[in-house]
Amino acid sequence: MPRSSDTDALPDAVGCLCSDPRGRRDEDLPCDLRDEEETQRFLLRQAGRRVVAADAVISKGGVSERRCFRVMEGVARLVLIDVDGRRQVTRFAFPGDYFGLSRSERELVAEAASHAVLLEFDAGRLQRLSDCNPHLARQLATAMRSNLGQAMEHVVLLGRKTPRQRLAGFLRMLHRQLGLGDVVPVPMPRTDIADYVGLTPETVSRAFADLRQRKVVDHIDRHLLRVDLPALVMIADGGA
Amino acid sequence: MPRSSDTDALPDAVGCLCSDPRGRRDEDLPCDLRDEEETQRFLLRQAGRRVVAADAVISKGGVSERRCFRVMEGVARLVLIDVDGRRQVTRFAFPGDYFGLSRSERELVAEAASHAVLLEFDAGRLQRLSDCNPHLARQLATAMRSNLGQAMEHVVLLGRKTPRQRLAGFLRMLHRQLGLGDVVPVPMPRTDIADYVGLTPETVSRAFADLRQRKVVDHIDRHLLRVDLPALVMIADGGA
DNA sequence: CGGAAATTTGAATATTGTCAATTATTGTGG
DNA sequence: CCACAATAATTGACAATATTCAAATTTCCG
């Protein structure tokens, strides 16, 4: 279920993928689906369902990759690995999120950060579907805008923040995406967090210790926290 | 500067196929512009033209900001300033680029990184225009996708790179956007570069010295370089 | 030409990364 | 169900790297 309350007033068209310049269309693409409900059901029929274990490779990425996905359960990670072996997690995709909608994202390696259930689509086909289906187009556009907002937030997190601030920012995101009251699941391993926030696992661990000492987080167990959200937000945004 | 719309030159709205989801529509939105050419001319008439000096504030940003812009000449920067005073340049917008298309971007402060010429639009209006104008819609969609790709690249640059790699990655971007052969203009001050790549100006300066010593860049003057592009790309991607 | 601002350079400091060792956690087979 | 092995996470000591602060230089404009 998409949770973003993106009230952005921009057009659906902004989020359109590549519309087909040659005006091609599939015979069996319905252009008259009446509502979100119906669109969802149709997509379910179109998509391949995949269940993957933690750390399984979902897509190897690269220029020839044509599939995109939607997370139904669990968390997926999009990873880029340098020639010198450094790893960067560019994004975590949570339930409801699409990934691989843009070509640049399809070039990344996609893996399961935890046990996950996915829908798999052909990107071109999904795009053509959205060309003649306003409901889907709107959904994808929203996804795209949300991606952009998240990427900006990620940039800010990586740019000029201390380890404590980075971890706080990351946990705030987890809270938004997966939080239940003040309880926050942390489904991914520490190395994934480290490669997302641009630190070593050791530094992430120390940042956790720091936040715990300040009573901003409380470890129920390694993958489940209780957080003081106001304090977390304060720290993430730069206040002490 | 003239922001007038020569009303007599406006095509009428007959032929608008796609209506606004909320049923709203402007009388004077032309929905039958035949090609990019004509769309461009129409946009020029719609937009307010602004000429700004280096460091001038283009938009203060915030939730109430409703304008978006297109850079015609020069470079604009989008800036976020923390409560603790740290500055992050999230994006540079070059000639041809739009900025402020998404709500998250409209919240940022926009400034001129150098002397610049801009077109100014009402975001909502531009959106409605694109709703019934496929050419514009396509153009904005492309802009949006390009933004996302750039943001991803920015994330990678900030994540796990040395100062030398960051600067090389930044200069590669400048080359793509402004390069003429192996000559690359560097219109913005060092502090802007520093706040984009997440380093201090001093470290940026040292990284410049490093690249110069390796003969990867040659300072024609402070704002004009000659670069060895293959070497630059090699370094930016993590090699040596 | 002169003064202000931007940039570069230098030395000391602080922070994070690295490497090694220890402690938890998880999953498996008995 | 428990013990144990394998993996993941934490902690500590040290080294490497970027920041900070200060000073010198260059560039930009009037």
From TrEMBL, chains A, B:
InterPro entries (alphabetical): cNMP-bd_dom, cNMP-bd_dom_sf, Env_Response_Regulators, HTH_CRP, RmlC-like_jellyroll, WH-like_DNA-bd_sf, WH_DNA-bd_sf
Keyword Transcription regulation: yes
Keyword Transcription regulation applies: yes
HTH crp-type domain mapped to chain residues: 161-231
This protein's UniProt keywords: DNA-binding, Transcription, Transcription regulation
Name of the protein: Nitrogen fixation regulation protein FixK
Highest classification ranks of the organism: Bacteria, Pseudomonadati, Pseudomonadota, Alphaproteobacteria, Hyphomicrobiales
Name of the encoding gene: fixK_5
